[in-house]
Known about the structure:
- The protein is mainly β and 159 residues long.
- It has one domain (3-158): UDP N-Acetylglucosamine Acyltransferase, domain 1 (3 Solenoid).
- The protein has no helices and 24 strands.
- The chain has a ten-stranded mixed beta sheet with strand order 2-3-4-6-9-12-15-18-21-24, with no helix packed on it. It has an eight-stranded mixed beta sheet with strand order 1-5-8-11-14-17-20-23, with no helix packed on it. It has a six-stranded parallel beta sheet with strand order 7-10-13-16-19-22, with no helix packed on it.
- A hairpin with a 2-residue loop joins strand 3 and strand 4.
- The chain is globular, with a radius of gyration of 15 Å.
- The model is unreliable at 10-18 (pLDDT under 50).
Amino acid sequence: MDMIELNYSDTKGTLLDTTTWETKGIYVVVPGGLEGLRAGTRLKVGNYVTIYSSGIMDRVSLGAGVMVDEGAYVGEGSYIGKGCKLHYSSRVGRKTTLGAGVCIEEFAHVGDNVRIGDGSLIGEGSHISNGVVIGENIRISEGVTIEAGAVIRMVSAVD
């Protein structure tokens, strides 16, 4: 089983201790508790997802091994691929897709309807505007702004 539907109000889950919730064979680690989820929030989660005190909106999918750090935000309808790391106070907009292993560093902002390929890194404080497409294994350095609609492909770095 790769992912399950998880509703914030789902009482079928078992709180194993103050930080780990098990439901339908999937373990969700919630060190900051579930206060980052609004009542009625529906998620799809993979195994061993870690959610700190974060803002996760409705209809978000979090692949196995995803870590959403304290203060991070994930917009409605977004897909966060397996093994992604969303660091402190990072933001991912609505209907955005992050491929496997993407890292969004502290204070980085990723807009709405953005596609970021597997293994890419968005540097601290960078701003990725709406509608941007970033290919696989791309490194965006700290503080860089990528304007709306830009397409970055191939293995490259933007400094």
